[in-house]
Amino acid sequence: MKKVIFALVAFSVINMSAQKLADVSLDLLDGNIIKGTTTINDIELITAYGKLIIPVGKISHIEVGLGKDNTTNEKAKTHLKILSTSNNEDTRKSAYNDLVKLGIKAIPAINEFYNDPKNISEESTYSGEFTIDNALSEIKASGNLNYDAPIEDILTMDNNYTMGGTYNFAKMDIKTEYGNLSVPKEKIKSVDISVAVEPGKGEFSFKVPASKHISGNTNGGWLKTGVTVKAGQRFNITANGEVTLASLSNSKYKPDGSSKAEGAAEFTKPYSSGGEVGEYSSGGYPTYGQLVYKIGEASTENLKAGAKFSGTAKTSGMIMISIYETVFNSGNKGAYNVKVSLGK
Is the torsion defined by CA of 144, 147, 153, 156 positive or negative? Predict the structure, then answer.
């Protein structure tokens, strides 16, 4: 978890607001991705510090946790104790099979068991196949868990802050271009959410991490700001920060495209593709590391925003932002801090 904010007062409200239409992208445990729209209330999150009601417009990402079921936890403990103490093959086999049958809900109990020093025994002489490690591997394989899933649901707010807790929802009803789908929570790995902001005046802040929002990343490379503009409407984009792009020999970049090779002392400005060598260009095609934008998800343009941009929307739609690079590497580091402001 990168950063946690405990703004109980700021996010707590008395009444749930009306449902809002949101664009969502569901990353499923089976590897499929579902994109569409859904109507969603402000999110009720149960945390260790109390219940919070978070405006859905603040939420950009939800990582679905495994959850903790007390009944499953108690059953798992019984099987785990047998697997940690018994050397009888038949007894171990029975406990092993029963533990695996509990499925991914047993993982929190297994993690707790491993984290308790009292359960670590160096005297065990068992060398067969019915071990806790093998049971855990089998549970993960059957549940398509090829990563370390969190126990709690993790919500990312304003593309920056994260908070853990329990977001109780049984399913998500999604309207897609192929029809309506109802996806159970237990099938979902994560959800990207974007609630459109109606055209008008206002300033909106975003964090654009290089570990995800790269224009060449075909899976979520463009950050949906939720900020919509009308054709002819004025808008401004400003940005600061620094990123390291592993795909470009770990060179560092700034939003205007200035770059510094690994080990170099100073940043250098990008070069114009149409002018003299060494001439800094604010027009033309974007250069690596520059902040870029487009209007509308279907657009294939990479329009230069840089560190400071002011312009007029040529079409109506949602402003989307990214870091320009044709190759995506999840080892990228850093982020740009971006502000989008609208005029009438």
Answer: negative
At 253-262, the pLDDT tens digits run: 999 999 999 8
Please report, for the chain, the start and end positions of each structural domain, with discontinuous segments joined by +. 8-65+150-195, 70-142, 202-342
202-342 folds as Jelly Rolls (2.60.120)
Distance CA 301, CA 313 (A): 13
Residue 272's pLDDT band (cuts 50, 70, 90):
low
CA dihedral 139, 47, 5, 115 (to 10 degrees): -40
Q: How far apart are CA 118 and CA 328, in angstroms?
A: 44
Query: Which region holds residue 200: left if phi is over 0, alpha if psi is between -120 and 50, else beta?
Result: left
- Alpha carbon distances (Å) from 95 to 77, 99, 235: 10, 6, 63
- Token digits for 56? 């859905």
DSSP one-letter code for 297: T
DSSP secondary-structure letter at 49? Answer: T
- pTM comes to 0.66
